[in-house]
Amino acid sequence: MYAAVLLSNMSESDGDGDGESDTEVYEVAVVGGGPAGLSAALYTTRLSHDTVVIDRGGGRAAMMLDTHNVIGVTEDVSGNEFLGTASNQVEEYGGDVIRDFVTEIEREPDGRFRLSGNSTEVIADRVVLGVGFSDERPEPPLPRTGKGLHYCLHCDAYMFIDESVYVMGTGDSAAHVAMIMLNFTDEVDILTRGDEIEWSDETQKLVDGHPVDVIHEDVTGMNKSDDGWLESFEFEDGTVREYKGGFALYGSNYNTELAEALDCDLNDDGTIVVDDHGQTSVDGIYAVGDITPGHNQVPVAMGKGAKAGLAIHKELRTFPKSLEELEAEGPVAESDVPGVSAEIQAAARSFGDD
């Protein structure tokens, strides 16, 4: 392993010494400020590693009107509030959070990584990719996301108990989600919106064996209540069907451009290949959250981020020195400890002060 950089917010001059090309140096750079990336940053910062989060904003979690399935977080907390609190925590522990879009990551000759954004450039020993994916949206008319249009069955099925529900899509996933929703309600329609069915013959037999209606006419209009929630869809045959809400299943677009440029291996489904701790096929590059295989859930993403943070700490921590290092360098002097930067020391001393 290459040597860790022990001091953040130090700068390296890439030019002729005039200071105009100074680049901030960190031990850990996290790309993406979702639940996974922020959890990784929280762990690396609290474990004494100088960390920066570079976040372009938005993302799946930021779209949540309410936070579901997260122990200790009440339903009335929006995604933006949830992420804002997490960002503040990282900064209070001594990490940096920057709003920018990372456009390029390159490995330096010394093994570190240079991250370039629209207005930011940093160097880091380890990089964590937490850039997630984007759900493919169907064509309008559509209700507002979170108020009748949903993408996460495991997050939102509870709110549709005993309600009329639609599932948009033509593939196997749409058919299976529709059948799963029968665990919560007895009124489930699949809306193909005039497109040809793409699910398998076996799936068709399953659909035939469940009380699910398949509506082939396209949606031509929509009615909403005063609070913005969906009330009903109008169809091209003139019918109107009432729905509390439903799910769109048209696939996902994984944000793997940075990973591919770094030659990280991808799975057949478009996710990044990682080990149990988030390490990709490229040494020093980690990936966490929805861009990796597994359930797309906030608590799962947070767990992935935590595991990556712990793994990075084990790689980068200064102490204990190995026997080989002690033999080569001699005993650790009292003046060499603690192995934490001045920035994190200062943050820790002032933590909790008003």
From TrEMBL:
Highest rank taxon of the organism: Archaea
N-terminal signal peptide: none
Pfam families: Pyr_redox_2
Protein's UniProt keywords contain Oxidoreductase: yes
Domain FAD/NAD(P)-binding, chain residue ranges per copy: 26-305
GO molecular function: oxidoreductase activity
Keyword Flavoprotein in annotation: yes
Keywords, in A-Z order: Flavoprotein, Oxidoreductase
Name of the protein in question: Thioredoxin reductase (NADPH)
Species this chain originates from: Halohasta litchfieldiae
